[in-house]
Specification:
Length: 150
């Protein structure tokens, strides 16, 4: 399993409901944001995969478990990592938390099938498998013990 990649965002007004709580659908959008940033941090983008190598990562399954609400103006951190890479599928896992009070807001997973532009399942090109599984050095001092969710 790879190390966590972190993406920080501030909750926008449009992402909240009448009660000021983030609408549940936004967590899947944040998973996508974290996943895209994770890939860019590994040296490639979805666009590169699609245009250069005719490889698209189609969401086949998604799961989100809501733990605590997020609110307008909260600064949240999306933690993303690869759980598994198979020949034709990639599974990502996520944690969303609010660093200001160390509250875990949600956890989730997405499973992606690799297809070509014609939507036919194909193998993940080797270069992307290598990049997805490359180790990333994390500064463990950035999160003192018992503060960041693990």
């Amino acid at each position: 399993m790879t190390e966590w990649h972190e993406t920080e965002v501030r909750v926008r007004y449009a992402e909240t409901d009448k009660m000021g709580i983030v609408h549940h659908a936004n967590y899947l959008v944040w998973f996508e944001l974290g996943r895209s940033d994770f890939c860019r941090a590994r040296g490639f983008s979805y666009l590169e995969m699609e245009e250069k190598d005719d490889a698209l990562m189609v969401v086949a399954e998604s799961y989100c478990r809501y733990k605590s609400p997020a609110f307008y103006e909260d600064v949240i951190t999306i933690r993303t990592r690869v759980a598994e890479v198979k020949s034709r599928a990639v599974q990502f896992i996520y944690e969303i938390y609010r660093p200001s009070d160390q509250t875990l807001l949600a956890v989730g997973e997405t499973l992606h099938l690799v297809t070509d532009a014609k939507k036919k399942v194909r193998s993940l090109p080797k270069i992307y498998k290598e990049k997805l599984l490359a180790d990333v050095q994390i500064d463990e001092n950035a999160f003192p013990e018992n503060q960041a969710p693990r």
